[in-house]
Design goal:
Layout (H helix, E strand, L loop, with lengths): L4 H13 L2 H8 L3 H15 L4 E4 L2 E4 L1 H19 L12 E7 L5 H11 L3 E7 L3 H9 L5 E6 L11 E16 L19 E4 L9 H9 L6 E4 L3 H9 L4 E5 L8 E5 L6 E9 L5 H20 L2 H12 L13
Parallel strand pairs: 3-4, 3-5, 7-8, 7-9
Antiparallel strand pairs: 1-2, 5-11, 6-9, 6-10, 6-11
Helix pairs in contact: 1-2, 1-4, 2-3, 5-9
């Protein structure tokens, strides 16, 4: 079975409706036909995308990954043939907000080259929840934010969002930490460490972190709430604690960035925009250049590349039709 756009639309409809029956009604199918199609898609992919319950369906971890990619494909397909109309001599301004992300500089440079008629104003806002509020109020046009698998971003129909990438969360350790020799660090073996934890971002952090700790069988022994990344790494280098950190960040001297064994924590980088102030072409360009910037960051992060090589080098299960799951 080869996946087609109609299959991706069906998957997204099920995810959005939270029910096979409601999705079938929205798309004009019968529920048995939709259920049969879902089984065939899951068989082709070799893994379940949804768990069934008495109140509907929920995405599995793999389902979250597939749906985020399906939305990307559908958005690109829908944008084919559309062209942006520009009035000669006109200058537009895009108000862009961003969380603490290394993607921003490359994104802005690429957008200025691709859209010389587009002026950009930038705002640094830590919490994705606050970015959403500013966009809902019309104070920003677009933003780089995050959410977490199982805690997907919620907003009004005035906004749209698209995943840039779903990435693992790593841990930053002092270079002389007792676990510094480990290729991957078990989260449970950091139970007695002091943790630096960044503040509430309004969309699921630090709840996702504490949930992972509970799943590993502990609650952090000591926690400091701390945000500025440069100061944070200085404190870690000084042996004052450890911290969850984005996998593409570059370590300071005296700091090691390591993957967590079993990858218990993930985050999803998002492009978010106002539908009435960002046209389809600009939204597509923002997503494209943000994704390109992230791919470039990966090439500069050997700790991330080593993890990816170990994680994805082994063959994954295949479906009946031989489709490899990635």
């Amino acid at each position: 079975m080869e996946l087609e756009l109609r299959h991706l639309r069906a998957l997204c409809a099920i995810a959005d409706a939270g029910s096979v029956g409601r999705a079938a009604t929205a798309l004009g199918f019968t529920q048995p036909a939709m259920s049969t199609q879902l089984r065939r898609i899951e068989s082709a992919l070799g893994e379940r995308l949804f768990t069934r319950g008495s109140t509907g369906v929920e995405l599995t971890a793999y389902g979250v990954e597939v749906i985020s990619r399906a939305r990307d494909v559908l958005a690109r397909a829908d944008a084919l043939g559309r062209r942006r109309t520009v009035t000669p001599g006109a200058t537009r301004t895009l108000r862009l907000g961003a969380t603490n992300t290394p993607v921003l500089p490359s994104l802005v440079a690429a957008m200025r080259t691709a859209f010389p008629d587009l002026a950009m104003s930038m705002s640094s806002v830590y919490a994705t929840g606050e970015l959403v509020r500013l966009m809902e109020n019309g104070e920003l046009d677009a933003a780089l934010g995050v959410d977490y698998p199982g805690l997907e971003l919620r907003h009004s129909p005035a906004l749209a969002h698209r995943a840039i990438v779903t990435a693992p969360v790593f841990v930053a350790l002092p270079a002389d930490h007792p676990l510094a020799h480990r290729v991957e660090v078990p989260l449970e073996e950091l139970a007695q460490d002091t943790w630096f934890v960044t503040p509430d971002d309004g969309v699921g952090w630090p709840g996702a972190f504490y949930d992972a700790c509970r799943a590993a069988g502990f609650a952090p022994a000591a926690v400091h709430e701390f945000s500025p990344l440069d100061q944070l790494q200085v404190l870690i280098a000084g042996g004052h604690g450890v911290s969850a950190i984005q996998a593409t960040h570059k370590p300071f001297d005296g700091v090691l960035i390591k993957p967590l064994a079993g990858t218990p924590l993930w985050l999803r980088h998002l492009m978010i925009w106002r539908c009435d102030s960002v046209d389809d072409v600009t939204a597509e360009a923002l997503h494209h250049y943000a994704a390109a910037a992230y791919r470039e960051l990966i090439t500069q992060a050997p700790h991330f590349q080593a993890w990816a090589n170990r994680t994805y080098a082994a063959p994954r299960p295949t479906g009946r039709a031989g489709t490899r799951v990635r």
